Amino acid sequence: MQSRPSTPPLARTPEEWATYAPSVGGRSFHGKQIFRWLHARGVLDASKMTDLPIAMREALASGGVAPAAEIVLERRSLDDTRKLLLRLGDGATIETVLIPGVSKRGGPSPAELDADASAAAEDEDEDAATLDVVRVTQCISTQVGCAMGCVFCASGVAGLKRHLGPDEIALQVLIGRARLEPHEQLRNVVYMGMGEPLHNYEATARSLRLLTHPDGIGLSSRRVTVSTSGLVPEIARLGEDFGGNIGLAISLHAADDETRTKLMPINKKYPLAVLMDALRAYPLPRRRRITIEYTLVAGQNDTSTEAKKLVKLLRGLPVKINLIPMNPIEASTLGPTDSGGVASFQKILIDAGYSCFVRKRRGDDVGAACGQLALLGAKPKVRRPVA
Ligand code: SAH
Ligand code: SF4
Questions:
Q1: Does 295 sit in the ligand 1 pocket, CB within 6 Å?
Q2: For residue range 63-104, what is the model confidence (pLDDT) as tens digits?
């Protein structure tokens, strides 16, 4: 990765810190030390980096090493999902969500259901020794709002306010990890909060390198999933830059162009045939699958005809399908498919041989749909019923 003078401190790699260290009176070997303080230990106050020379600590502290972010609200749902509202330096608010699974004694966790087969097998081995550990999945944001304009999504209705920096993306994980309880462990990170990660590609890619760096948080790349509405060139770029090792989730939500364009305007630019080609070309490692997200919106994309079209569309692709009954949002009259409709839709996919789960709407009571919390009180510009 190219080191640019504008790279914010929390987004620097150990190598970049090594190059930077002399400018604050240090030596290149301090680079790894600083990175470890920040990302492995989560110490964001340079004056507390006790093994650095005092003059260096002071120089680092005076410039600041992390962007401003304040937790302005934390909502805990009955199922222990915690949604944090963070206010950034410019006053913009974003959200990140901590979603605990169930400990092994209590049965499989949603994170486990989402994990690919090899990661799940790895979990089995580790769990022999860690029966009471609750594995947490963290959902993070990449933009303030979103430019993609999906009609069922609170972030889409709000429109794009700004991109997040790579430091602001990584900081959400440092803040989330610091709030874990003693029996909890951060296991998975999903880029499914506010914003379209691939519309902010550079920052997303750098944050992926930070989160998976072995001297930092050290997440395994197979436990990190980027979700996209289908930006085709950037899907290819992600595949190339990370060798297909980052988990990929596609927000499909429809199996024909007409329906998809109505729900997701990006489909006009990258229609289904082009998107499917991009998925076929993604350099997926063996035994891994692409996650297909399909939000079921009553009367829009939830009939048996549509389920059958989906069966056909995905044929031959290594996928698992997550069905998500739409979380109602204030800005739209659209709503979720009822439970009977969800079950029939799921049955068609399962009967056709697909792995297909219904994602529980965890944290519903705390406004867990994408962008809902950050937008509380913010009036949508337009009310957009689907024609
Ligand atoms: N922009 C990316 C990632 C963030 S959205 C993307 O679209 O993939 C994460 C997921 O939540 C997406 O699948 C999105 O379609 C879904 N989503 C957004 N609003 C929703 C709602 N009101 N109900 C259910 N799912 C929603
Ligand atoms: Fe953006 Fe994703 Fe919401 Fe669509 S679903 S508006 S791409 S955040």
A1: yes
A2: 999 999 999 999 998 888 999 999 999 999 999 999 998 655
Distance 50 CA to ligand 1 centre (A): 43
**What pLDDT, in 10s, does the model give residues 312-334?**
999 999 999 999 999 999 889 99
- Give me the sign of the Cα torsion angle 253, 139, 230, 333: positive
Q: What's CA 289's distance to the chain center, in Å?
A: 17
Q: How far is CA 96 from CA 46, 86, 104, 182, 323, in A?
A: 25, 8, 25, 20, 21
Domains detected in the chain:
9-63 (1.10.150), 69-366 (3.20.20.70)
- Both structure tokens of 153: 């999504």
Distance CA 128, CA 386 (A): 50
* Predicted model pTM: 0.91
Burial (Cβ within 10 Å: 0-12, 13-18, ≥19) of residue 379 = exposed
Could you tell me the distance, in angstroms and rounded to a whole number, from the CA of residue 229 to the centre of ligand 2? 7
DSSP H/E element including 206: helix 201-211
Element (H, E) at 340: helix 339-351
The reply to whether 184 belongs to the active site is: no
Contacts of 269-272 spanning 24+ positions with Cβ under 8 A? 270/230, 270/231, 270/232, 272/313
